[in-house]
Amino acid sequence: MNQLIQSLVERSRNAQQVLRSYDQEKTDAIVKMFAKVIFDNAEPLAKLAVEESRMGVYEDKVTKNRGKSRIIWNALKAKRSIGIIGTDEEAGLIEVAKPMGVIAAATPCTNPIVTPMCNAMYAVKCQNTIIIAPHPRSKKCAMAVAELYYKELDRMGVPRDIFLVIEEPSIELTNELMAACDVVLATGGAGVVKSAYSSGKPSYGVGPGNVQGLIDEGIDYKAAAGRMIASRIFDNGIICSGTQTIIAPEKDYDTVIKEFVSQGAFYIDDKAVIDKLAEVVFPNGVINKKVVGQSVKTIADLAGISVPQGTKVIIVKPEKHGAGVVWSKEKMCPMMAAYSYQTWEEAVQIAYDNLVYEGEGHSADIQSNDKNHIEYAGLKLPVSRVVVNQTCSSMAGGAFANSLNPTTTLGCGSWGNNAISENLFYTHLMNKSRIAFVKKDWKQPADEEIFA
């Protein structure tokens, strides 16, 4: 094993033994501190994230730093995570929570502040320690977070080594770390997720996003357009839960598109211009790193097209959808593809075809007031989350307005080659012992009753 990784893991294991000696109150004080530090330093950390990663939007990163720290701590502060956490006298069961050990967390440059924070909060909540393996384009961010945490940990008399960082990360070091720790959290591209599942350790990964946006007939198109634009443009489109498409009713298609245009969209249905954009955004069918997390103006300039000043998002209308069509894939920039449908079943089929091509298992954005239509989409689409009448990019990862677990790691189930089809929560980072007693007044039912 690499000497650096061996040293980090040994230090982390020693710190975990100290962490395990704390009661719930002291443990929660550390978890709260992890959130409050990011909340209080949201602006300078957002500035550093934009500068180092060279993508995203400063104001959106400030919002994200404050929003995630706020909601994750709120979800954790009243939860028991140490010792006996549940008793069911009727069932004769007692549940005892225990740590998993040392957590390895590979974190992305798209979320270089809140992902280390979230992972650390969930790990330490269950008295695990954590070692962060940041993307090389976010190593300064990871160390900035660490230095802020160390100042507070010193004040609290808690070992710094409960939160460690690979200061000069590489693929090789990250792979060694994942193999040496007890559990792996992998948030990032397909490569790091595959490495996590190949590490030989229990792993939680994520899948690619390609959120399909379905607009039902007769709803408030103005409100729907506002939510979907906000979802698409947040942090210049690098959020995996950002809405990728507009699937609108054919009879109201022009009305819907006019609403998007009135709120800052630039609509393109000229095949020649769409093809020119495709060459820039998807050269050889693969997303261009030069457009990821960049502004509309940057993308337009690269393609040699002119867009009005103040344009928030570019919308293209491809001739086809599904397999082999680049516009059916995830676009990690302020761009959307628009389609029309005659029946709701056709709308769902368009979304399905695009998801099977890329993004299976992630999320869908439904703008509808028809419960039957919403449930139909929920039954048919291979996604872990169906977000209804919300801003998907900022709410699929949990929000005060919904009951999804607040997180920065959105599991995509077996569709996305992930272990979980839900939002990662602290409960995924604890072992449980179950003490089973004989149930009161139990009796075995007769065979006739069992097989009736």
Automatic annotation (TrEMBL):
Gene3D superfamilies: Aldehyde Dehydrogenase, Chain A, domain 1, Aldehyde Dehydrogenase, Chain A, domain 2
Pfam families reported for this sequence: Aldedh
CDD domains linked: ALDH_F20_ACDH
MF terms in GO: oxidoreductase activity, acting on the aldehyde or oxo group of donors, NAD or NADP as acceptor
Entry keyword set: Oxidoreductase
Annotated ranges, domain Aldehyde dehydrogenase: 5-263
Name by which UniProt lists this protein: Succinate-semialdehyde dehydrogenase
Organism expressing this protein natively: Lacrimispora xylanisolvens
